[in-house]
């Protein structure tokens, strides 16, 4: 139990009175990379938003424990301070707020410690260099006029700066070319250590080739119906979800 980071038991979640997650179970230990795959509409993004505490996603049954503490009723900002981070599939544009100002404010909020301007700029440049992001990027307004790839890189930059205990990446690789996916994967691997874990939601195998996940889970109709290693993702790539769906339906 000492190594357990996230424990989800029989989680049921509704949106606008429609049940999306229907008894989901998941365990993530510290230092692990987990991947969730599944057909559209199965509940992948619902799980991500629920873990982050989005108010429109109502937990109707089950528990979510983070480091042994039940967080079902915890608000999103409280979860962020606990060390949970969500990378959005469709990042918002925020005119008038620069990338640097946004990240420094976020770091201050999450850590509870003021961030000196010069020290933070050195940290930001270090992280941007690792992600091959140009220096002038820091003074641009957050996501305004960014390409799809730049928005996704910015999400990984946020993760690198905030150093969460659990990073949830919701289809961060969608719309990226192979070179960008490799850079994103390297950024993800740098944040993971023996105390930090990653939960990746994806449709694509290319990111997994670079990430080397510990576990791959298949989420269908609101439940995780199969768990394996990277070979499970390759099976899905070759055969799709139909065989797994049929096996689950007849179980």
What does the model show?
Helices cover 39% and strands 29% of the residues. It has 251 residues and is an alpha/beta fold. A six-stranded mixed β-sheet has the order 6-9-10-3-11-12, sandwiched between helices. β11 and β12 (223-228) form a beta hairpin. The longest helix has 15 residues, at 148-162.
Question: What topology does this entry show?
Answer:
Elements: E1 4-15, E2 18-29, E3 33-37, H1 44-52, E4 58-66, E5 69-70, H2 76-82, E6 84-87, E7 94-98, H3 99-111, H4 117-130, E8 141-142, H5 148-162, E9 166-170, H6 178-191, E10 197-201, H7 206-211, E11 215-220, E12 223-228, H8 230-239, H9 242-250
Parallel strand pairs: 3-10, 3-11, 6-9, 9-10
Antiparallel strand pairs: 1-2, 1-4, 4-5, 7-8, 11-12
Helix pairs in contact: 3-5, 5-6
Using the alpha-carbon principal axes, give the shape.
globular
- Domains (count): 1
CATH superfamily: P-loop containing nucleotide triphosphate hydrolases
Number of discrete helical segments: 9
**Helicity, in percent?**
25-40%
The CA-CA distance between the termini, in Å, is 30 Å
Tally of DSSP β-strands: 12
Strand content: 25-35%
Determine the CATH topology.
Rossmann fold
CATH class: Alpha Beta
Radius of gyration in whole Å, from Cα?
18 Å
**Low-pLDDT regions:** none
Give the ordered list of helices and strands: EEEHEEHEEHHEHEHEHEEHH
Biggest β-sheet strands, sense, barrel = 6 strands, mixed
């Amino acid at each position: 139990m000492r190594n357990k980071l996230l424990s989800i038991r029989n989680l049921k979640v509704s949106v606008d009175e429609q049940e999306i997650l229907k008894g989901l179970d998941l365990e993530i230990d510290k230092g692990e990379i987990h991947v969730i795959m599944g057909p559209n509409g199965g509940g992948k993004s619902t799980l991500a938003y629920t873990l982050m505490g989005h108010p429109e996603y109502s937990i109707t049954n089950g528990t979510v424990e983070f480091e042994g503490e039940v967080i079902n009723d915890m608000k999103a900002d409280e979860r962020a301070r606990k060390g949970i981070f969500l990378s959005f599939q469709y990042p918002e544009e925020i005119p008038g707020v620069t990338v640097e100002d946004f990240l420094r404010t976020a770091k201050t909020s999450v850590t509870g410690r003021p961030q000196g301007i010069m020290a933070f700029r050195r940290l930001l440049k270090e992280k941007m260099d690792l992600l091959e992001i140009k220096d002038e990027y820091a003074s641009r307004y957050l996501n305004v006029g960014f390409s799809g790839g730049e928005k996704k890189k910015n999400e990984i930059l946020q993760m690198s700066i905030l150093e969460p205990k659990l990073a949830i990446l919701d289809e961060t690789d969608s719309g990226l070319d192979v070179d960008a996916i490799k850079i994103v994967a390297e950024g993800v691997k740098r944040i993971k250590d023996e105390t930090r874990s990653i939960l990746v939601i994806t449709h694509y195998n290319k990111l997994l080739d670079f990430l080397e996940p510990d576990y791959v889970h298949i989420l269908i109709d609101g439940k995780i119906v199969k768990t394996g290693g990277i070979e499970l993702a390759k099976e899905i790539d070759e055969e799709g979800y139909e065989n797994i769906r049929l096996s689950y339906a007849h179980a």
